[in-house]
């Protein structure tokens, strides 16, 4: 199945935390379950990503992946 990257959302955080989400759009069916899925991209290569459905209608389903990490402190 092909998913299209539709949005990159940065969230406000303290300076030592990075938080953003990616929203993908896919077809209305089949609906992918909330779990880790294998992705392949021509430039990025192959990787696994946890996604969950966040919206859907007759036109398609939107999925989100959330990234959250502590940044290394600068010496």
Explain what this protein looks like in three dimensions.
- By secondary structure, this protein is mainly β.
- It has one domain (4-70).
- It is 0% helix and 64% strand.
- It has strands at residues 4-10, 17-26, 35-41, 45-57, 60-70.
- Strands 1-2-5-4-3 form a five-stranded antiparallel sheet, with no helix packed on it.
- A hairpin with a 2-residue loop joins strand 4 (45-57) and strand 5 (60-70).
- It is elongated.
- The model has no long low-confidence stretch (mean pLDDT 93).
Distance between the termini: 45 Å
The major sheet is characterized as:
5 strands, antiparallel
Beta strand %: over 45%
Order of helices and strands: EEEEE
Number of helices: 0
Average residue pLDDT: 93
Rg estimate, integer Å: 14 Å
Spatial strand order of the main sheet: 1-2-5-4-3
Low-confidence stretches: none
Q: How many domain units? A: 1
**Shape estimate:** elongated
Number of strands: 5
Fraction of residues in helices?
under 10%
- Write down the oligomeric state: single chain
Based on helices, strands and strand pairing, what is the structural class?
mainly beta
């Amino acid at each position: 199945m092909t998913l299209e990257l539709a949005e990159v959302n940065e969230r406000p955080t303290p300076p030592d935390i990075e938080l953003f989400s990616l929203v993908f759009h896919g077809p209305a069916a089949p609906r992918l379950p909330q779990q880790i899925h294998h992705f392949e991209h021509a430039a990025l290569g192959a990787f696994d990503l946890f996604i969950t459905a966040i919206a859907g209608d007759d036109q398609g389903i939107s999925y989100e992946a959330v990234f959250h990490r502590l940044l290394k402190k600068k010496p």
